[in-house]
Design a protein that fits this description.
By secondary structure, the chain is mainly α. It contains five helices and no strands. The chain has helices at 19-26, 35-51, 57-67, 74-81, 86-93. The termini are far apart.
Length: 103
């Protein structure tokens, strides 16, 4: 699958995102996305659409605790998404731009 990505590996056009695109992006993390992952990624997209920007880690976790599960925390996201860069990689997998505070 050929995707049009920016210099940071994020989709240029977030509207083309679907489950197949997310799985293609997840290959770089050696990650097979499950329904649980997609529930999180849909919430990240919801955050972006609701607030007009990609979330930093703390606001993202607070949002996920309210919208998905109170059991979510940074350690769970790091483990389940196989990354230490939670906000950046979840935004990339969700097809939205890189959060402004990420390097």
């Amino acid at each position: 699958m050929q995707l049009d990505l920016d210099q940071d590996g994020h989709l240029v056009d977030y509207t083309i995102w679907d489950h197949d695109v997310a799985q293609a992006l997840a290959q770089s993390l050696d990650l097979e996305l499950t329904e649980w992952h997609f529930e999180i990624l849909h919430a990240v997209r919801q955050f972006y659409q609701q607030f007009g920007h990609s979330p930093a880690t703390r606001p993202l976790i607070k949002f996920l605790m309210k919208t998905v599960s109170s059991e979510i925390n940074n350690a769970v996201l790091q483990q389940r998404f196989n990354t230490g860069l939670v906000a950046r990689h979840l935004s990339r997998l969700a097809g939205v731009p890189k959060p402004a505070n990420c390097l």
